[in-house]
Amino acid sequence: MLAMLVLGIETSCDETGLAVYDSRAGLLSDILYSQVDLHADYGGVVPELASRDHIRKISPLTREVLAQANKTLDDLDGIAYTAGPGLMGALLVGATFGRSMAWALGTKAIGVHHMEAHLLAPLLNQNQVPPLPFLALLVSGGHTQLVKVDRIGSYQLLGESLDDAAGEAFDKAAKMMGLGYPGGPMIAKAALNGDPNRFRFPRPMTDRPGLDFSFSGLKTHTLNTVAKHTPLSSQDIADIATAFEQAVVDTLFIKCRRAVKASGIKHLVIAGGVSANQRLRARLEQDLDAQVYYAPNALCTDNGAMIAYAGALRLAAGETSSLAIQTRPRWPMIELAPIPAGDSPSG
Ligand code: KG4
Ligand code: ZN
Fold this sequence. Notes:
This protein is α/β, with parallel strands linked by helices and 347 residues long. Helices cover 41% and strands 19% of the residues. The protein has helices at 36-40, 47-69, 88-105, 114-120, 166-176, 183-191, 216-229, 234-263, 278-287, 297-300, 304-316, and strands spanning 5-10, 15-22, 26-34, 78-84, 108-113, 134-139, 144-151, 154-160, 267-271, 291-293. The longest helix is centred in the last third of the chain and has 30 residues, at 234-263. The structure holds 5'-O-[(R)-(carboxyoxy)(hydroxy)phosphoryl]adenosine and zinc ion (ZN). The site of 5'-O-[(R)-(carboxyoxy)(hydroxy)phosphoryl]adenosine has 21 residues, from helix 5 and helix 6.
């Protein structure tokens, strides 16, 4: 890849993420400010509060991330910001800030696709580049997708959730048990003490052909189980958390196994917040007939580093965003342009 120093800005939801990525030296600095406490009382992310908090944090964090990298604004070759998908107001903060600053500095800007950035995060560590084509399981709070990656930037959607995303299901199940937000890590923690034989939850849509997912039935099943055992003891919570986690992990595993068999591709990247789940990683690594790749935990959930990295790849390939500040709350990944082979990490 062309030598580049890129500032990455992530503001698509409830985390303000800033990072400085150097295409030769790697990640120089990475800061994350989470708004979790701000939204805790409301039981979910309040979009207007999220936007306002991004505005408060984005300038001081930019200064801090540059100082940590020992760089100044003038050193930057480009600025990458999340342009979608995500919350409109939250996206606009990062995009307006990043695009305007690039204009003021006379440097390049690139609007990055949040899910492509998640997908590429495991490749940030250059020791771990899967050969093309490979499969990717994207599991976050907003998306659950199985994708075939023909080359970087060229994605075929093999299957996706017809209702809730896997992370969203974790969050809702945790809320039912009073475990707090984000639910994924809370459920995983509670499940450590659970009895795996007490409950068996359904594996939705695994008895039907195809690679689509559905998690709403599992949500209803969890709600019914919670209602039946209320008031919940800590053992009830642990047992329900275990059954829930096993059902999600098993469902994701079954679909990945199906995708590997159908495609003959034996390399799978897992990315997005749920890819931090230890049971999911272990299950895929043990039982899937494929090599599994994932990012370190901090790069699985939202962060500025993945935005800087994805932006650096596209900037190095000559792509830039126009002066117009453009954000897309909904943005199918298949609409992205392939990155020329010579500039992709596997090229
Ligand atoms: O990728 P991400 O940070 O944000 C989105 O783009 O949505 O994903 C957040 C999601 C949340 O739903 C959270 O509960 C889930 O990832 N998550 C986990 C774990 N860590 C985060 N789910 C299961 N196990 C985890 N360890
Ligand atoms: Zn995300």
